[in-house]
Amino acid sequence: MEKLLDGIEEILLMGPGPSCVHDKVYEALGRKSLGHLDPYFIRIMDAIKADLRTLLDTTNTLTIPISGTGSSGMEACFVNLIEKDDPVLILINGVFGMRMQDVAQRLGAHVENLEFEWGTPVVVDPVKKKIAEKHYKIVAVVHAETSTGVKNPVAEIGDLLDGSDTIYLVDAVTSLGGMPIAMDAWGIDALYSGTQKCLSCPPGLAPLSFSDKAVAALEARKTKVPNWYLDLTMIMKYWKGATRAYHHTAPINMHYGLYQALQLILEEGLDNVYRRHRHYHDELVAGLEGLGLSMLVAPGSRLPMLNSVNVPEGVDEAAVRSTLLREYKIEIGAGLGPLAGKIWRVGLMGHTARQENVDRLLEALKTILA
Amino acid sequence: MEKLLDGIEEILLMGPGPSCVHDKVYEALGRKSLGHLDPYFIRIMDAIKADLRTLLDTTNTLTIPISGTGSSGMEACFVNLIEKDDPVLILINGVFGMRMQDVAQRLGAHVENLEFEWGTPVVVDPVKKKIAEKHYKIVAVVHAETSTGVKNPVAEIGDLLDGSDTIYLVDAVTSLGGMPIAMDAWGIDALYSGTQKCLSCPPGLAPLSFSDKAVAALEARKTKVPNWYLDLTMIMKYWKGATRAYHHTAPINMHYGLYQALQLILEEGLDNVYRRHRHYHDELVAGLEGLGLSMLVAPGSRLPMLNSVNVPEGVDEAAVRSTLLREYKIEIGAGLGPLAGKIWRVGLMGHTARQENVDRLLEALKTILA
């Protein structure tokens, strides 16, 4: 029988996620499984909740990982908050805003969009105008648009919604653990993320947080959540209280990995982690520009952890990625949608954001593009 | 900072899942992450598909793990096959049949049930009568009812549906890898399972298989699948073909674990694995009866991997479980629903089904119940 696992080579993961994983997180994944109702496992669950609150700068009780990858977090936020014909406004400037629209429409929401050019951020003024004209149950935006490398003005949009009963829903898949998030101060009511970006844990869980306002909206539903697996009214009974009620069997070992990944971030210190992301982003951009390459996104809107690089005229972008992977053992990402073939996406997420990784990629690109 | 992972003790997992995990599977979980579109990872995906087909005895192309725990497999089967008001018949004799009903109702199906006493199997004759009276789009049943320890007559119900266009949907969460399943021969069209039972891999993935008939029903939908995350029309483009389309980031390291768990089963040989489950089930039952305990389920309907033991009069069942866990480092399960407080559930799933584990539990129970 072929032993494929023995043939796995270590790849430097500099794409849009998954990112490089610390050895301590790999070790954590292989710790002995406990039962999902074992009191010791519940202690680990409680520690994960507390650490996620710290990263999100929130006091939200309902702050837990969902048992699926980042996109299951998106699904969970929308399916718990939407009832048929609810008016939802989605701010779109990339693939993940488009995905939000698709998710919300499938759930029967009345979805409206405001669209902005891919590679540029959401602009606050048209949003202000739109929400002044009509009341939406939910306004949703992506914090760090992984498809373009653009940072959206999440705090400023939150200010617009201050005092309203609209639920403010934010995708923090790529931002969490790599740049500051202040869920409470920014007025975010529902937020989801993923483990395989700046948390530097393999994919498999989706951190999620609901404010009291979002929980109240959930509890005021007239209909059952049309998704048993992601129904937070049941899932929260497993995640809080003295007696835990079985809902589904939690992915035990993935939780060990997430716990360890959060510990590493908190040991380094959030400010240090954010500074490191920013620093190696600057190093990378300077190096790329030194090679004659240019960035898709204007400086003020760039994400530190996801760098979109314009593919130079006449270069076969797929061949470059393939050579990087095969010969240099470095993975970078392709463009998606209208940016397919036009950009490379270089991730500096979590544990990947290190000097040696920036250097290794720049050296390789220098040789390949020469 | 507290280091909770260092405090994890090895527990003998003899509950209703998760089950004991082989060291090779723990090692697999900690292998270096690859990108979800890395050609080498795609080879691992293809091997998983092939191995799952062998375990299920099917040629179904659409045989893949869903990125969530077993219950996400249930959700995926129903949400991909149900459209509003579709008539669905669910055969219920335990918690997981009830869960099917809840899942299907939330999706807008017109659900009818046939209920059977918990602890006894589904009876074929009333099913025959019911499906003669009315046409159902889906008939669903649980193969191994984990809440009671009962085996349902899945092959016989499949015979009733032979030649009809009704989709036959089976929960194989607890049966897969512990007792024979012949998906094609039994006429099963849609099946889901979980990794944390007889596959002896930690929870986090849900093997799923659709027959061509089920795929045709999916493709004939008039409406989009109302769940983006679990939409198989998109997910299958990631799992087959020469060019793989990104849908969501697969839980890479969980797939390593599943791959290794499947390898271990195939190396031992399916017949040997099933014989081992049956053999240690017999040993366990004999030992329990030797202690004066009795089984909930009649001999002909007992599952080998999930043994429901009647709690003797006057015994505090929760105290016994707690002592087993704290003092003997053995986990067994409690009863659910109407069986709460009345039974213990002893798992002999996958790697747990070994002589030394049976002996250790029997010794402990002998002392505790003395």
Describe the secondary-structure layout:
The structure is a homodimer of 370-residue chains.
Chain A: E1 12-13, H1 23-29, H2 39-56, E2 62-66, H3 70-81, E3 87-92, H4 95-106, E4 110-115, H5 124-133, E5 138-142, E6 144-145, E7 150-151, H6 154-161, E8 167-171, E9 190-192, E10 206-210, H7 212-219, H8 232-239, H9 252-268, H10 270-290, E11 306-310, H11 317-328, E12 330-331, E13 333-334, E14 343-347, H12 355-369
Description:
- Chains A, B: The modification N6-(pyridoxal phosphate)lysine is found at residue 197.
- Chains A, B: Keywords: Aminotransferase, Pyridoxal phosphate, Transferase.
- Two copies of one chain form a homodimer.
- Helices cover 40% and strands 15% of the residues of chain A.
- The model of chain A has no long low-confidence stretch (mean pLDDT 97).
- With 370 residues, chain A is of the alpha/beta class.
- The longest helix of chain A is centred in the C-terminal third of the chain and has 21 residues, at 270-290.
- In chain A, a hairpin with an 8-residue loop joins β13 (333-334) and β14.
- In chain A, strands 2-10-9-8-5-3-4 form a seven-stranded mixed β-sheet, with helices on both faces. A three-stranded antiparallel β-sheet of chain A has the order 11-14-13, covered by helices on one side. Chain A has a two-stranded parallel sheet with strand order 1-12.
- Chain A starts with 11 loop residues before the first strand and ends with a helix.
- At the A-B interface, α1, α2, α3, α4 and α9 of A face α1, α2, α3, α4 and α9 of B.
